[in-house]
Amino acid sequence: MTLASKSHDPITKQLSEVKERVATVLELAKSLGADGAEVAMSRQQGLSVSTRMGEVENVEFTNDGGLGITVYREGRKGSASTADLSEQALLKTVTAAVNIAKYTSVDDCSGLADKSLLAMQPIDLDLYHPHEISTEEAIELAKECEESALAVDPRVSNSDGASFDTFAGFKVYGNSHGQLVGYPSTRHSLSCVMIASDGDDMERDYAYTVNREFSLLESAKNVGLQASQEVLSRLKPQTIPTGKVPVLFRSDIANTIWGHFIAAISGGNLYRKSSFLLDEIGKDVFPKFLNISERPHIAKALASSAFDSEGVLTQDREIISQGALQTYLLTSYSARKLGLTTTGHAGGIHNWLVDAQGHDGSFDAMLKTLGTGLLVTELMGQGVNVVNGDYSRGASGFWVENGEIAYPVSEITIAGNLAQMFKGIVAVGSDVDMRGSIRTGSILIDELQVAGH
């Protein structure tokens, strides 16, 4: 989109108008006696369609958003929100926040992020790629996805539906330090869930594609094909005996392992002393060959952001260097609780890149390295304790023998301890999944307890 067309774009125009509203709210807060204030607003509009067995199931148009304000007064904090941006509604919302702040407890750690850390002039990360598409065209995409999947094999004769979603929106943030920033973004996705049956056995699996830019989505035909291939591979699962075996987490679910790591080094868990990685800065948490970098400013990436939800400038960081933990993930509040400085992680992480320094390979190479053991392609349940690192989850996937997939398995449980699992990583594949905030390949762990049912 050119600069000229952006100026006439409805989202760009709304963003400019909302910035004016946010500035008004900040002035109102000041006039009502707030020592400091911060205002955030997001708006999203878009289209979602879903089909099932060639019939339209749902068509939904979205146009919603809300404004939230937090005020600080004499060490106390009050918050309120509204979806109504009229002058009267904004005055009521600010007044409510100021009144709430009269009754909350004094907390020396609350307050705005330090002004010196803020992104006053954030860079453009090219996150906005609107695509005009009619309802009819969106429905045809979902139908094509299903049709492609149903044509693969007669055993795939049923569908749980295909969905196409396209959204455009923006975020605006301002505070009484004089910061007033915002940016537009888009997100397009297509997914398909298929059901396959063979005799008494019935299985379900899916495939999806997501991108900031519509033209970079996988084709509907390919998404349908992938969904059918996934579900067919799961038919006639077996159980496996209980024992300790090497386990390979396929790349599309490997990010769950890093998700537990994120929770363990997040400020909220650390200052509450509810993490198994307390006081581990500078210590080896992973094998020496492993590095994790954060790169918030990758153009068009799904987790890119020039600033966090407190307005703090995001920056390149090394999370893990040669296996050693380099930083915690802190908000302003958790940083003050710990006597540290915020790392710009209010609202989440920003593009993690996992690098195994040569200890990697293609998916097939990872299977060869696994040898005989378990390939996990789905996880169920929430049996993870971040306080002590205990890990236990239901799983399904494939039994691998001599580096080759032998047969599907289901109704199994995998268990271990996260601290040992992290150090037991043998390799990370080059089969990187780019569809989320963590860019990781498959993860091979030397040994986990596996129990069949």
Radius of gyration, Cα only, in angstroms? Answer: 24 Å
Give the mean pLDDT: 95
| Strands side by side in the biggest sheet | 3-2-1-4-5-6
Query: Could you spell the SSE succession in H and E letters?
Result: HHEEEHHEEEHEHHEEEHEHEEEHEEE
If you had to describe this structure to a student in words, what would you say it looks like?
This protein is α+β, with helices and mostly antiparallel strands and 453 residues long. Helix content is 25%, strand content 36%. It has 10 helices and 17 strands. Strands 3-2-1-4-5-6 form a 6-stranded antiparallel sheet. It has a 5-stranded mixed β-barrel with strand order 7-12-13-14-17. It has a 5-stranded mixed sheet with strand order 10-9-8-11-16, with no helix packed on it. A hairpin with a 2-residue loop joins strand 13 and strand 14. It is globular. The model is unreliable at 1-5 (pLDDT under 50). Residues 128-235 form the Metalloprotease TldD/E central domain. This is PmbA protein. Belongs to the peptidase U62 family.
In short:
It contains ten helices and 17 strands.
What descriptive keywords fit this protein?
PmbA/TldD fold, 2 domains, disordered N terminus, 6-stranded antiparallel sheet, 453 residues, alpha+beta, 25% helix, 5-stranded mixed β-barrel
